[in-house]
Amino acid sequence: MGHFSLLDRLLGPLVFAPFALAIAYVAELLLGVPAWMVFRRYGVRSLPAFAAAGAFLGWLVNLAMEASTGNLATKALTALFNPLDNPYISICVAAVSLSAVLFRTIVFSGGHRIENPK
What we know:
This protein is mostly helical.
């Protein structure tokens, strides 16, 4: 068995962060921007709607990552919905759902807007 030090535990996320950030930006461009355009077109402002859409988009991102590694061909379809079988499902769903709720809170905060003095 391998030996893990405290330094490995602290530096590990820093090594993987650039890869996760790249995946997040691509997913945002491919899924998040069209979802925002649909929500804006139909005037959706509901916090639960943003949370549910974010959870669905997070599940789609996880599904895309599973497909890119070839796990869709080797795992049962029930594993795609079981967070006990794959903990990354919960991570993706929670992260994107919370990001969508934060985005909705910022966009519809109703704060004071600075007008152009011209």
